[in-house]
């Protein structure tokens, strides 16, 4: 057997970025599903028909991260923490023993229900 994972997000052009971040946080950094979904988000590029192609960070990132990115030449702006602008995500996994775990995004009013 193997661990099975289903996940997704809404958020227009930001979906691939959010989904890549969710997977990396769980598989590479070892975060739980809930930690991955609740972690601060970033969004690079145009989305929702905007003209700006900058980098947006939730205000839960440190000021140092923001300033470093600016110094390296990025056009950076803040969005509020847990912003709807970053989309909503959810994750469900089944482990090797068949147990389920799930996480709903604190940026939304969603929830997780298991069998």
UniProtKB/TrEMBL annotation:
Gene3D superfamilies, per the entry: 3.60.20.40
SUPFAM superfamilies in the cross-refs: N-terminal nucleophile aminohydrolases (Ntn hydrolases)
Top-level taxon: Bacteria
Pfam family, one: G_glu_transpept
PANTHER family given in the database record: GAMMA-GLUTAMYLTRANSPEPTIDASE, GAMMA-GLUTAMYLTRANSPEPTIDASE (AFU_ORTHOLOGUE AFUA_4G13580)
Protein name: Gamma-glutamyltransferase
Species of origin: Acidithiobacillus ferridurans
């Amino acid at each position: 057997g193997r661990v099975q994972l289903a996940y997704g997000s809404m958020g227009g052009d930001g979906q691939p970025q959010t989904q890549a971040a969710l997977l990396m946080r769980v598989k590479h950094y070892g975060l739980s599903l809930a930690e991955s979904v609740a972690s601060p988000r970033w969004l690079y590029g145009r989305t929702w028909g905007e003209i700006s192609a900058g980098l947006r960070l939730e205000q839960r990132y440190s000021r140092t991260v923001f300033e470093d990115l600016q110094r390296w030449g990025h056009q950076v702006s803040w969005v509020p923490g847990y912003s709807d602008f970053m989309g909503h995500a959810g994750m469900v996994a089944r482990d090797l023993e068949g147990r389920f775990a799930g996480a709903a995004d604190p940026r939304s009013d969603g929830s997780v229900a298991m069998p």
